[in-house]
Specification:
Length: 161
């Protein structure tokens, strides 16, 4: 038996002011787009903004439904939009923020399990790491080097062969 560690690290910044101008802009876009979320049930508005490798910016927000399971997270709305509009475009960085109408929004949230699975497949198919910036509408900012770190031992297309 061997024991293997699968470590990963995150960068923690005390606020958006510590970020580079490009990262700061992307986070501000994620924060601003939360207002386009359709989340009347959870009142938890999530906004995601991606900078593609070619410089284009694409955004997404969560879209809910009275039939609750139909709702889609902001991250997967964004990935679908990128995939539909810019075939196989690599995503360099994605920022995710939220506006919790029932409470605080001063600490980062990170993508749910389904979104992690979608993110790692997007990384794999475009052969491009997605840096992830996480923050609420204010406060600390986490930066993760690639989505794959959020889903170690992930199930991938090769497993189907
Ligand atoms: N949600 C996202 O859009 N992204 C996340 O990373 C976490 C959760 C949405 C799903 C649902 O519309 C609401 O937030 C509450 O779970």
């Amino acid at each position: 038996m061997i024991k293997k560690e699968i470590p990963f690290s995150i960068e923690i910044y005390s606020s958006v002011k510590e970020l580079s101008s490009l990262d700061s802009l992307l986070l501000q876009q994620a924060r601003a787009i939360t207002k386009m979320a359709y989340a009347p049930y959870s009142k938890f508005n999530v906004g995601a903004a991606a900078r593609l490798v070619d410089g284009n910016i694409v955004t997404g927000t969560n879209q809910e439904n009275a039939s609750y399971p139909i709702g889609i997270c902001a991250e997967r709305v964004l990935l679908s939009a990128v995939s539909s509009q810019f075939a196989n475009a690599g995503i360099g960085t994605m920022a995710i923020s939220y506006n919790n109408l029932n409470g605080e929004s001063s600490r980062p949230i990170s993508p749910c399990g389904m979104c992690r699975q979608s993110l790692v497949e997007y990384e794999e198919r475009t052969n491009q790491n997605i840096r992830i910036i996480l923050s609420g509408m204010e406060g600390e900012v986490f930066i993760i080097e690639k989505a794959h770190h959020l889903l170690p031992l992930s199930f991938m297309s090769d497993d189907l062969k």
